[in-house]
Design brief:
Number of strands: 31
Strand content: 25-35%
Distance between the termini: 131 Å
Shape: rod-shaped
Number of helices: 19
Strand order of the largest sheet: 13-12-11-16-15-14
Structural class: alpha+beta
């Protein structure tokens, strides 16, 4: 086709004043027919805009023979002497014909959007893809300034800035963006490259660009970013519900407008996983979220259970073990949406735009835990295959975190149950001290620790106060704590002094390390213990420690300080001695025993914490229980990383009117005199009903001391909640209970004592031994 260019001149009133030969050839009108006429008379269609300035665009004129002719017209204003527009010069040509060259067709048919602009950001050329993106034919854009063809938005202004930058600097630009386009119903990702087009002289004659639609790659990268974020943001705590909430926070609104996590009932309990049923499935909602405040799309409230019919996406996903996608219009989708609307009609208007749902099973270690559901409402795209792959990968990671949290909760519950079964539930009745205690299990992800405490009644109205800590966490630590706790009770029953008891306990831990993997862990990490014995008769406290913090003592005058003592090595080190400390306490003094979790924290100084402890112990409190709360509130770290055990004991004293002592000469004739003295003392105490048994016990124990023991011999009666009879001598040989044969002359007395008294025993002392027996509590 012949290439013809037309030219015409129009004055300020729209009258044709000049007409070229090319104009005659394109329109059929000769110059004498066109000049002097209004240009509007030559048009077949009205101009789309008023030509106030320079412009380019398609114009439909009427040919002389009557048929319309479409021309691409460029109008340039003509200025008069006063610099005002005096008219226009027009150039016109037929629209571009099909590209005659292979290179031109390659440009026109390229799959990426390609355009050419003049240095003033006016369109010179567009290919077919660019026209589809803009939504108009090439003729509607040629010669037009780019900002005139798009909305006034930030991404459009940025595009224009890049065009001007290339035109002004002559340097190419490459950048990526995520924006919309006039003919696209959603935002797309674009990889755009602009470069200068130079003429023969090297000057910039235009700017060319190629924009590649990289939406799929962008979405793939975004899914990968979400997976990376999932690794960092899901499973930050070992809490099942919080882990589910973290999954929702990651998905909404980037992947779904509404999302929920529902778990099978057994996951939140201690049961073993049952098989997934074939029909209806019962799930409990643990987390959900949406782009609307209050999550109005939800048909199930948090914590509620919901029965999902077989056709529902959650039930199908659980049965099939893979992601299930449903789109608007599918029968199962419509049934599911109708069921949701019927269950919670108040949220119907928020579900009106639901067009796609994806349901993914939460499976970890071959076990199904629940289901993750995502719903798209405002998001324009339906869920596709790539979304299903992403959702399955994310659900797999989330399921492992949920399963870890479930296992941790189960182990924590087991350890806590075991520990509570080993700790004293009700402290035994005794008069030596008034006690109060607190135990706070660790809330850290490491698990329950091995802290314990105990109050053990001893002979002679004495009492043992124990506090210990097995370093480590979890069930192994709790089990080892139980072993040590029972060992201390056994050794306390033997009535060993504190330093000797710790020596035996140290040997036990060493043996555990030699024969037991758990013990080896304890020996490596350490276990600590503090053992104290208080005697209300002498008002003396004897204590020794194995790597444990020293206790604090609050005197009745309100002063508090730590006990000065040398803590021995932690249990399990072996071969090193333990040193006992003895101090006399007034009645009403408070002894505070505790584990290191109370005072040790990574962000504070131990000396400062112990100072806070002593200060808190002097605070006014009506009861020891109230004082326990005061101490914890003042001293406990905000987020303790370890278990905390606190044991407070207020000392009592037995007065002189509750204790009677006699020195006994090592003469069998003195037995009757001693027995008589004991009977008279019982009468003075009003315990005549206990005289018969007491006479027998005194006779047997004093006779044995004279016969088999060594001086000095002493008898002591203690009136406590029970009546205690003690006989001491200088021999370290302890008696043994045996059954006498028919013809034996002796051996029946001690057996009779054991049968008539509540309990009896012996203990070693610095000067020999003491045999003791306790009778039932006093009458009345």
């Amino acid at each position: 086709m012949e290439h013809v260019v037309a030219a015409a001149v129009i004055d300020a009133h729209g009258i044709v004043t000049g007409w070229s030969e090319g104009a005659r050839r394109l329109t059929g009108h000769a110059a004498e027919e066109a000049v002097g006429r209004a240009v509007a008379d030559l048009l077949a269609e009205a101009l789309p805009r008023r030509p106030d300035g320079e412009w380019t665009g398609p114009v439909v004129v009427r040919h002389r023979d009557g048929h319309p002719v479409t021309l691409v017209v460029t109008a340039c204003p003509v200025l008069g002497a006063d610099a005002r527009p005096a008219g226009f010069t027009l150039t016109a040509q037929r629209p571009a014909a099909p590209e005659p060259t292979l290179a031109g067709r390659a440009f026109q048919q390229a799959s990426m959007s390609m355009s050419v602009f003049d240095p003033g950001q006016r369109y010179l050329r567009l290919n077919e893809t660019a026209c589809k993106v803009m939504g108009v034919p090439e003729e509607a854009l040629l010669g037009r300034h780019f900002p005139e063809t798009v909305e006034d938005a930030e991404h459009s202004r940025g595009f224009d800035r890049h065009l001007r930058h290339v035109a002004e600097t002559g340097r190419p630009v490459r950048y990526e963006s995520f924006t919309g386009a006039p003919a696209l119903n959603r935002e797309h990702a674009w990889s755009t490259e602009m470069w200068p087009v130079r003429d023969e002289s090297g000057a910039v004659a235009g700017v060319a660009l190629a924009a590649f639609d990289s939406t799929e790659q962008y979405l793939a990268r975004r899914r990968l970013v979400l997976l990376n974020e999932a690794a960092a943001s899901i499973g930050t705590t070992l809490d099942v519900v919080r882990t589910a909430e973290e999954v929702i926070e990651l998905l909404v609104p980037q992947f779904a407008d509404f999302a929920s996590v529902d778990l099978l009932e057994w996951v939140l309990g201690a049961d073993e996983p049952p098989p997934v049923p074939d029909g209806e499935i019962l799930l409990r909602r643990v987390a959900h979220g949406s782009g609307h405040e209050g999550t109005p799309e939800a048909a199930v409230r948090l914590g509620e259970t919901d029965v999902h019919p077989p056709f529902s996406p959650p039930a199908r996903a659980l049965r099939q073990g893979r992601a299930v996608r449903l789109q608007a219009g599918e029968p199962d989708f419509m049934s599911w949406l109708a069921e949701r609307n019927a269950r919670a009609p108040e949220g119907r208007r928020f579900r009106s735009g639901v067009h796609s749902v994806i349901s993914v099973p939460l499976r970890a270690r071959g076990t199904t835990l629940g289901v993750l559901v995502g719903v798209r409402i405002a998001h324009p795209d339906d869920y596709e295959d790539d979304d299903a792959v992403f959702a399955e990968e994310l659900a797999s990671r989330a399921a492992v975190c949920i399963d870890n949290a479930r296992r941790f909760a189960r182990e924590r519950t087991t350890a806590l149950t075991l520990q509570h079964s080993l700790l004293p539930r009700g402290l035994p009745g005794q008069v030596a001290v008034e006690v109060a205690h607190r135990y706070l299990p660790s809330g850290s992800t490491a698990g329950i620790g091995g802290d314990w405490f105990d109050v053990i009644p001893l002979s002679g109205s004495r009492v043992a106060l124990v506090v210990g800590d097995v370093v480590g966490h979890g069930i192994p630590s709790t089990a080892t704590m139980g072993r040590l706790c029972m060992a201390v009770r056994t050794l306390a029953d033997v009535d060993l002094p504190p330093d000797e008891l710790l020596t035996h306990l140290d040997d036990l831990v060493t043996h555990l390390a030699a024969y037991d993997d758990v013990g080896e862990e304890v020996a490596e990490l350490g276990a600590t213990c503090l053992y104290a014995v208080y005697d209300p008769v002498s008002r003396r406290l004897t204590l020794a420690a194995a790597g444990h913090p020293a206790p604090a003592v609050v005197l009745p005058d309100g002063t508090a300080q730590l006990v000065r003592m040398t803590p021995g090595p932690p249990l399990g080190v072996g071969g090193l001695p333990f040193e006992a400390v003895e101090l006399e306490l007034p009645e009403g003094a408070v002894v505070a025993l505790y584990t290191d979790g109370l005072i040790e924290d990574r962000d504070r100084d131990v000396d400062r914490a112990t100072g806070e402890l002593c200060s808190a112990l002097t605070a006014p409190a009506d009861t020891l229980d109230a004082l326990c709360d005061t101490v914890l509130k003042a001293v406990l770290p905000e987020e303790p990383d370890d278990d905390v055990a606190l044991l407070l004991a207020r000392t009592r004293a037995l007065g002189a009117d509750q204790v009677a002592t006699w020195d006994v000469e090592p003469d069998p004739a003195r037995v009757a005199t001693t027995r008589q003295a004991a009977t008279e003392q019982l009468t003075a105490w009003g315990l005549e009903e206990a005289a018969f048994v007491t006479e027998l016990v005194v006779s047997e124990l004093v006779t044995n001391a004279i016969r088999y023991g060594a001086p000095p011999i002493r008898l002591r009666l203690i009136r406590d909640r029970s009546l205690i009879c003690e006989v001491s001598d200088g021999s370290s040989t302890s008696p043994h209970l045996r059954r006498a044969h028919a013809f034996d002359e002796g051996g029946r007395g001690l057996l009779l004592v054991a049968q008539l008294t509540q309990r009896w025993g012996s203990r070693q002392t610095d000067r020999g031994k003491t045999i003791w027996a306790e009778q039932s509590p006093e009458p009345g």
